[in-house]
Each structure stands twice: as structure tokens, then as C-alpha cells.
Amino acid sequence: MQKAYQELDEVVGRNNSVEEFHLLKLQLLDAVMEEKLRLHLALPLSVPHISRQSCTLGRRICPGVPLAERMFVFTLASLMHSFEWKLQDGTEEIKKAIPPLRPGPRGLPVVGYLPFLSTELHKKFTELAGVYGPIYKLWLGKKLCVVVSSQSAAKEILRDQDATFGNRDAPIVGRIISYGGSDIAWSSMGPAWKKMRKDTVLGGTDTTSTMVEWVIAELMQNQEVMEKVHQELDEVVGLNNCVEEFHLPRLFFLDAVVKETFRLHPALPLLVPHCPSQSCTVGGYTIPKGTAVFLNVYAIHRDPNLWDNPLEFRPDRYLNKQTTKFDYSGNNIQFLPFGSGRRICAGLPVAEKMLMYQLASLLHAFEWKLPNDTKPELSDKYGIVVKVLKPVVVIPTPRLSNLDLY
Ligand code: HEM
């Protein structure tokens, strides 16, 4: 508006009226008119045409174009040149159009998309992201849900709008995905949540033992990696000692093995659904207050735009100092096995240490072999946490020189 007034003052001046010869010089006003016509067409569907035979296009263009164009700019220029315009007192500012919620798969009345979900919820949601994009909605019963599968949208939720998305919503989603019956994971933010969140030892044992199983399953599949783990343990701990807590920070390769296992098999691949306390915009789309938001960490961890050969088990990717730093803090939204922001896993420090200690001890003390003629099975099954489909059966053989160490 200010620019249009400025142009009129320069071209017409305050002591004259707008005349036809001024119009050619009013370039900004002309551009305003074109932009208005692009966004708000007077006849958005044109006047229907009937073709009697094959023909070329363009014959029925509006015959009044030259007149309409001149009249429009002339009227607008005269009105704006002569007056300042403002909204009547008490009128609200014209609000910008609220972007819609991104569409997703259609469901059935009442039950929504529930009948189409399998037990592999994270895989189904990833498959749907291929069709509907990185943010889409779906109804689970009467609950509106949004699934987010891109790093940038996850960042908006977990970092930029962390306070808004810090709440939880249990009801129907809780029947599909729950976290060990842990009340804290479902409670909305507030004093009770803060109190519970302090040192609760809930639901953590299942996730930790499941991750031990996944690491062993991956190592059974990757014998070269297993050898490197043993080599590191022999160097750092030695065959005449037991693993102690002070050894853990020096086990860089084992740490990378654990991280790579978390990347491919996050225990909670959709985290615990977050729920915005007010309507907000993510990635240009509206997420209404109270929506259950699933963050598809499984998809982000396997995104080929973020990871080289994402389906390969390659612990080395965490050891290259040149590449991005990966830890469990959730600061790097590319790697989120424990979530991020104010609802990050409350047991993270203890879980990380427990996992490393258990694995280092088991791998240091024993050689592990699969029973004859068996192969490790790396499929998963969805439950409270995502587990190895078939329990891994492995045979241990002592590898320490001194049997008194056992
Ligand atoms: C391998 C082990 C574990 C993994 C992978 C894991 C992962 C997670 C994830 C992904 C969340 C949800 C974060 C979000 O929604 O943004 C979470 C929440 C939580 N975890 Fe863990 N966890 C583990 C072990 C533990 C342990 C050992 C404890 C307890 C000592 C624990 C206690 C909790 C609690 C209380 C919450 C809810 C936090 C809140 O909503 O404020 N977790 N965990």
C-alpha cells in the first residue's frame, strides 16, 4: 500500500488529478492488478465452451480486455491518489487464509483408518508417507492424527514449537501404541508430570532388553563387526579383567554398533504421540489443537536423503569425525531413538549406561554362535516396543582365560 501511494505521488503528484497518460507509468499498480487477477479470478472456471469440432484455442477470449484493463487501473489509481484508506474502527485485520491440513488416506465412517492398520504400524505409516508426503492426516476412530516423517517437520515440532507439542493424548491412540503402561508417558505437562518424571523407573527394562537382543541379532548377521567389537574389548578391557564402568567411555566402536542398531531398529519408532496445546502450523500445514501427532522416527532413520545406504548396517558412519555429530540428546533431528525436547526419554542416561554395560560384559565374556543351520531373523513385530520377531537363540562359549572371572 505504501509503495503504491509513493508511486502515485511520484508519477501524478499531489497537485494534479490522475489522467489517462499517467496510467502507462504506474507499473506497480499494474503489477498489483495482475497479482489480484492471479489470486482472485472473477470467473474462475471461465464461461463453458462447447467444441463442435477439433479446433485451435483462443478465439473466445474476453473482447473487453483493453477497456477493462484501462478502467480497472484508472479507477484504482484515482481512488488511491485522492484518499487514504483504512478499515472501519472495530473491524478486525483481514486474516491470512489458514493453510489446510494435508490430506491423507481415507477411512471408513466412525472407525476411520483403524481397520486398515496392521500390527506393523511404523511400516504402514512409512508406506503412506510415500503416497501422501511427509505430513499427512488420518482418522483413527474419532481421533484426528497427523503423521510426520521428515526431519524438517520433526524439528519444527520437537525443537521450534516444543512447548506447544509437549502434551500427550492417551485415549484411542493409547490402545494402539502404549509405553509399558507408564502413566508418565501419557500425562500432559504440569506439576504432576514434572514430579513423576524425576528418577521413575518405568517401562525402561523392556526397551533396554529388547535393544540388547537387537544388537546381538545384528552382530550375528555381521561377523566382521563382531570381530572388531571383540578386538576393541580385548584392547580396552583385556582378557584378564571384567568390564568395569570406567571402561565404557573408551569403547567407541561398541558405542557406534549400538547407535547403528538404534537407527535401524528404534524401540519406539513413532515415539509416544505428542499433542499440541493449541492449533499451530507445521511445514505450512495446520495442525489443530488436540491432534495426536506421530513422529515417524523409523522413516527419518531410513531416509536416503539423510543417510548413505540407509538399509545397510554400517557402524563406521558414527566414527568419521568429519561427519555430523550423533549422540542421544535429540539435538540432531536426524537421529532420535530417545525422542527430543522436553518430552525426551526420562531414563536416557541410565538406559545408555545399562545398555553399554550389559552388552560389553556379555560380548567380552563370551563367543556367541548361532545353532547349526540357523540364520538370524531381523524382522520386527510391533508391540509396546518393537521387538525381534523370532527370539534370537545363541550359544555362548567362555572366552576369558581365567574362569574365576565368571
Ligand atoms: C533402550 C532404552 C530406551 C529407549 C529406546 C527409550 C525411548 C523412549 C522414547 C522414544 C520416549 C518418548 C519420547 C518422545 O515422545 O519424544 C521415551 C519416553 C520415556 N521413557 Fe524411555 N526409553 C528407554 C529406556 C527408558 C528407561 C530405562 C526409563 C526409566 C528408567 C525410561 C523412562 C521413560 C519415561 C518416564 C518416558 C516418558 C517421558 C515423558 O513423557 O515426559 N525409558 N523413552
TrEMBL record:
**GO MF annotation terms:** heme binding; iron ion binding; monooxygenase activity; oxidoreductase activity, acting on paired donors, with incorporation or reduction of molecular oxygen
Provide the family line.
Belongs to the cytochrome P450 family.
A Pfam family (short name) is p450
Domain of life, source organism? Eukaryota
Indicate which residues the UniProt annotation says bind heme. Answer: C345
List the cofactors.
heme
Q: Which Gene3D superfamilies match?
A: Cytochrome P450 (1.10.630.10)
Q: What is this protein called?
A: Cytochrome P450
The keyword Iron is annotated on this UniProt entry: yes
The question of whether Phosphoprotein is a record keyword is answered with: no
Q: Give the keywords, sorted.
A: Heme, Iron, Metal-binding, Monooxygenase, Oxidoreductase
Q: What organism is listed for this UniProt entry?
A: Hevea brasiliensis
Q: Where is the signal peptide?
A: none
